């Protein structure tokens, strides 16, 4: 099975601390790298992670709060200094377009690569990225500014050839793609070998949902049914429920409720308020509702 991983670069919230970097992570799918959010220090964290800058093909920004996008222009500049030539696509709320272009015009006049901006509609769930192996959808969220999460879905792959059966019937390798696509095989003696005997089922497609800053949304579970791994902001514990409601954030327990109702495989907690010296209190609250909850920390890598 090809890699589908999440690399945590930053999991803190708005107030910088010595413990956590602001929001940023890399989603690695079948050799492709996608950056989700780009808070201050993202390029430093990319260095530490040893992920190749040149392999990042797209950036997905959830909303225009600084802890999710202040690192973007610096990273674009660094890409230019490193001699990047491949196009980089930035998906973000429309309000970022003019701001980003002004920054590029002022700070990065001599870029040798194209920065393509794609405005996303944060009010609709829709596919905004599509390639041979993956789609990315927006997830409408409710925060103090226009905001959306992103849902990465692996496309179903073809079944696997049963080499022992193929060798037994002397099937040439040139016919494997036809068989994977649904064909059977006829032997020289006229025996019909059905497709089902020649293949093993492919692995179940995996999916990863990144739920950035949002108030608790019970209806979100309907959009996340069966997701393999869910990252859900968990800024506060229940001791600060009023703060969560005031600033349109979620508690760890509320994140776990969404995970439980959606039937996800695992829940990753993040976007911690700086008021918590030990995030274990958030983990304990989440696990009371959804056992397979995990804390994220910088440089953690999770298999989806």
| Helix proportion | 25-40%
Radius of gyration: 22 Å
Global mean pLDDT: 95
Order of helix and strand elements from N to C terminus: EEEHEHHEHEEEEEHHEEHEEHEHHEHEE
Q: What structural category do the secondary elements indicate? A: alpha/beta
Strand content is 25-35%
Give the tally of β-strands.
Answer: 18
Main pleated-sheet profile: 7 strands, mixed
Name its key features.
globular; 304 residues; 7-stranded mixed sheet
Could you give the topology of this structure?
Blueprint: E1 4-10, E2 24-29, E3 32-38, H1 42-49, E4 56-60, H2 66-69, H3 72-81, E5 88-93, H4 96-107, E6 115-120, E7 127-130, E8 134-140, E9 148-154, E10 160-161, H5 163-168, H6 176-180, E11 185-186, E12 192-193, H7 195-198, E13 199-200, E14 207-211, H8 220-223, E15 229-233, H9 241-246, H10 252-262, E16 266-270, H11 280-287, E17 293-295, E18 301-303
Parallel strand pairs: 3-4, 4-5, 5-6, 14-15, 15-16, 16-17
Antiparallel strand pairs: 1-2, 1-18, 2-3, 7-8, 8-9, 9-14, 10-13, 11-12
Helix pairs in contact: 10-11
